[in-house]
Amino acid sequence: MPKGVAASPRNRWVVEDTPFLSAHLSRFDLCDPDHHFAIQIPVRARLYPPLMDAILALSARHKSLVGNEVDSLVASHYYQRCLSILIPELDSVHHDSVDDLLAATIVLRLHEELDGPFSGLETTYHHSIGTRALLQNQASHISSVSGLRRAAFWAGMRQEIYASIKRHRPPAIRASAEMLAHLGPLAMDSAWAESAVSHCLNVLDFCFGDESMNADLYDILCEKIMRWEVERPASYDPLCFDVRRDSNNETNTSWDVRYHGDWHASAWAYILLARILLVIHNPRQPRVGLNRVSAWKNVLKEVHSKIKLLCSIAQCRPETPGPSLVACMAVWLAGDMVEDPPERRRILELLARTEAVHGWPTQDICAELEGLWEG
């Protein structure tokens, strides 16, 4: 009989809920059609205790947030036990354990993201520096490594977008040339979602870095986003784009926007987030002068339109965490620019549903927005 996790009282809930475990790990597979995390990680975790502890910590944390099915102390127990082994191993990485170690840090980092408010300081990321160093060290070998490690790299890139926006700082890691080598015009369908993630990271580096007033770089970034939108495969066209109407036959505040796959919806979410950032951080935006007010009105209109589209994508795909999380990031960055009361209510509903379904902490964003809107 193969070795497995003993069904002790502490972890019986996760052993008996394998479908939930695979579904939860699948959030790391947004750009991976082979679903390496959902399929391989539960099996590999049986032979690598830190990875199993990271999974148990994440699963317990999610269950404590959604439905209060598990005491949060259970998550803390597995989290601390994982760190006690993981941190020493980050100082001396063996080639044979890179995949398991990287996967464990990615899973554990999601646990930490769920463990505090979005606008709070990063006080619990005990291993983030080690994780980023591991990603940077291995990035040059990405073209010759396993599909699992490639999937873990892109999951780490998406997590870095969250961390960058949360703390308004440039991304500590970005995709290397080796990681981008397979993202040409003839790349497989899901690779275009990875390209969208890379574009978003580059935009964040511009907005929060030392080059934020470089107009030439701004033009280059805008051109790359536009080329992605023009050249991406036809599979990224929406299956449906319909204007919803309310009971009074008035145009509603959201659109019905449907995409075929998770990576199609997630890719557009990251492209829209990059667009919002570029509109807000346009170095040519007049800061003084008589045309400043009219120019700013155009900014408000464009940002408002993109937030509306992004939230509509998230609302039409509530079971997929990617678009909902990206929408929450966009709302935290520019939700104060939304002025229409019905749309404000829909944003608050989206934030509440994201926390209820996926466990993402959004109460602080809701409180900040309500304070700004009422003021």
Account of the 3D structure:
The chain has 375 residues and is mainly alpha-helical. It has a domain at 1-162. It has 16 helices and two strands. It has helices at residues 12-15, 18-25, 36-44, 49-65, 72-90, 98-113, 128-138, 147-167, 177-180, 191-208, 215-231, 262-280, 292-315, 321-334, 341-358, 363-374, and strands at 240-245, 251-258. It has a two-stranded antiparallel ribbon. Strand 1 and strand 2 (251-258) form a beta hairpin. The longest helix has 24 residues, at 292-315.
The total beta strand count reads 2
Counting DSSP H or I runs of 4 or more residues, the number of helices is: 16
Largest sheet: 2 strands, antiparallel
How much of the residues is beta strand, in percent?
under 5%
Strand order of the largest sheet: 1-2
Which H/E pattern describes the elements?
HHHHHHHHHHHEEHHHHH
Index terms:
62% helix, 16 helices, 375 residues, mainly alpha, two-stranded antiparallel sheet
